[in-house]
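ESCALATION

Customer reports they have been waiting on this structure for their group meeting. Please prioritize. Original submission:
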Amino acid sequence: MVKIAFNSALAQKALGKEEPADVKDPELATASVGIEGSTGRCLLTLLGVAFILSGLIVGGACLYRYFTPKRLYHGAMQFSDVSAGGENQPYYLPRVEEEVEISDSMAVISVPPPRFRPGDPAYILHDFNRKLTAYLDLTLRTCFVIPLNTSVVLLPQDLIDLFSQLMSGSYRSYLVHEDLVVTERIDDIKSLGFYIRRLCDGKETYRMQRRSSLPGGGIEKRSAEECFTIHHFENKFVTETRICKA
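Update from on-call: job pushed to the front of the queue and completed.
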């Protein structure tokens, strides 16, 4: 009788060849999943840090823009009204006093109640970035907005130079007349910018135009208008601003 025996090593090798090709080591699979999850978490962390840093940069720029240190100045001007003629001039020159707060992007002028002459107390804000001027009449508690008149209003640094000179004494000058007319009410003041929105919040706000720019050649209708005046200066002369509501 012939006895047939199988080599156990060859048998194990043959059995090993019969294993499916797609069977992987579970430890290796778990390690790869862990690496992929860690990479995803790192990317999300980096994105979050980048978002926070960008928010800090933008917020810092806004804070610097709106809360930069402001300088407060006081000044006074005496003036003569050439248009009134020599015979109508008072025996003393009228005087306008102001306090102005100046920064790189805006100027706020505080006009106190005038003495011995008509006129309203007011706050006047010039936004040099948005090219707008807002008048807050403190008697009427009403705001009036118009494009910034760069031919009348000096730039911030020039304003600082002017009031630095005025702080040493009074200044004699002349009067310029400005005639403004209310054209429409502004219901949403958000588009007027941060400074004017802060000044006019909760108050009726109107848009204005210069009378000379209106159709009809600037013909006045005094009998049908309600007008008031504000005397102020943002240059080397005094401006009498007359605002009329039809």
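Sent to customer with the following note: Strands lie at 71-80, 95-102, 106-111, 122-127, 132-137, 142-147, 171-185, 204-210, 226-232, 238-245.
Escalation resolved.
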